[in-house]
Structure formats: structure tokens, C-alpha cells
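User: Teach me something about this protein's shape.
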Amino acid sequence: MLVLGVDEVGRGCLAGPVVACACVLDDKFFNDEIKDSKKLSEKKRESLYSYIISNCVDYSFGVICNEIIDSINILNATKQAMHIAINGITADYDKVVVDAVKLNNIKKPMEHPFKAEDKFLSVAAASILAKVYRDNLMKKLHIYYPEYLWYKNKGYGTKEHVDAIKRYGVTPIHRRSFLSEII
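Assistant: First, the predicted structure itself:
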């Protein structure tokens, strides 16, 4: 049975997009190094990124920018990113497993257990791909807005990031709906 695993990263960030990934692994595929991206070092995630892409059946990303997050809220933006990622998959699969988010209008059987990345290898792989993709995007955005240290905090609300917002203001990349208690 081929499982389409879906996970997202960046829901709690103050800046940048929310990124979802959908990933199908062969049902015989196994690698015990693939775990929830939060349990891996940045270096390990980056080394697994290429390995997963080279060995998966199919993968796809969905990216929703901060402006849409501000207009439809983070949960709806996350669901939209997940639908985009799922719709980008061209390989056949038997069921969809999403980490803790129930999606509507899915044509295959679907599960959405809490901590699905600990239970389904394809969801763990999707979490790694989404995390590396988004982290690299934030590193690129750091070049344009170096005061906010996104190469390091990836847009999350670290003290350095919050202090930078207070000192330098809000960029076009920030999620204004997330900043009401800061500015």
C-alpha cells in the first residue's frame, strides 16, 4: 500500500510562508534515519533531503505566502498549502496521511493522526523535505533583510527576531496578523 504522507512547516513563524510537502515512498522503502524533522539536526535534515528526493516515488510542495496567511488565517493557509502539495503528486497512491490536519475534498482514504510523522515514514520524509525547503527559502530572504537573522531563526519568534522587528519595523515578508502583541 502506497501512502501519500503530508506535513507542513512554518505555522508558528512571524515571517515567511507556510510550506507543505506531500511525499510518496515505495512500500518496501525503509530508512531508520528518517524521522520527524524536529528530531534531526539541520545538517542531518539537509543530507536526508537529497536522499529522500532521489529515492521517493514522488514529492511535491505547496507554498502559501504571508499575505495570504494574513487574509485567510494560518489554518486555512496550511490546508491550502497541503492541497497544492497533494495536487502536485502525479504518482498513484492508496491513501493519504496528514499530520494532525483534517482535509476536505480528498478523493482517497485519509487519516490525520496527531504526530503522524512518528507513525508513518512518508509523513516523516515530507516533514524533512518541507523543513529544508522552507529553511533554504528563509536563508535566501535573509539576504534582503539581514537585520532579522532569518538565516538563523527561519522567521520564528526568537528574542533576536522580535527585537529586530521592534528596532527596524515590519518587512513585506512578515505576517502582520501575528505581530499584534509585538508592534
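Now, about its shape. The mean pLDDT is 97. The longest helix spans residues 121-144. If you'd like, I can walk through any region in more detail.
User: That's plenty for now, thanks!
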